[in-house]
Amino acid sequence: MGEEYTKFIPIQAPSEWEPPSHFTAIGLWEKFRKTNWEEGLSYLDSHRLPFTYRFRIARNPKHSTYTKRTEKTDQFLNSFLEETDSQTEDLNSGKKHPILELKQRIPWNSGTLVMGDEDHIRWEYVTDSLLELNSVLKSDFLKKFEAEDKFDFQKGIGFINSCPTNSGFGDKLSVSIPARLADSGELRDFRLPTDWGFYREELKGRLVFFRKNFGPNRKNSFFNLVSYLALLVISGKDGTKASFAP
């Protein structure tokens, strides 16, 4: 693997992100951090904020990084599905049946499995609930994506994907919020960490913050950042400080 590839792989954050002490509403954040983890996420969900969360993970069979479809890779993909004992729902009949043939996009474990796109396997999950996202990220079936002996993997780099920015742990977490929240000043004084990225969806009027290569040990950084954003919006909307159970 050449230097031109490896230099673009995102470096995993050395520690979990938390808002610096000079950020707005830091006292509110500290109170939130003292609550039970799942109760705190449930509290944020109860406000039904216009936030959408997305998790994605991508993998390739060994020695087949780029998506040139062959009989060998098709056999691997079918084998992967059979090993997970997954089922997909026939949208026409409403009945469930085992997956026997390779499909481009199929419902799988509450999310969507995309086959043969930029990478051979990509699973994504979209939700408006932090509590649901937290539960999904702890699911046993995601451990199947950690099999170094089955996927294209190289020590010192991690899982190899078609684009180097998607390599390493091969995962990505993002939050989509209305762009008006930033434009109106409701997120004033907030600064996105330098190892995160963002883009605007002009037609949808949305702003997307994302970070790649979290890995199993840094996903709390994502929850911390989006929870802090949610607290800023909640405190501004209510005109008062958010209240938490003692």
From TrEMBL:
Does Signal count among this protein's keywords?
Answer: no
Pfam family of this protein, just one?
Answer: ATP-gua_Ptrans
Domain Phosphagen kinase C-terminal, which positions? Answer: 114-177
The UniProt keywords, alphabetically, are: ATP-binding, Kinase, Nucleotide-binding, Transferase
Which first-to-last residue range defines the signal peptide? none
Q: Which Gene3D superfamilies match?
A: Glutamine synthetase/guanido kinase, catalytic domain (3.30.590.10)
Q: Name one GO molecular function term.
A: ATP binding
Q: What is this protein called?
A: ATP--guanido phosphotransferase
- Give the source species: Leptospira dzoumogneensis
Q: Give the taxonomic lineage as stored in the record.
A: Bacteria, Pseudomonadati, Spirochaetota, Spirochaetia, Leptospirales
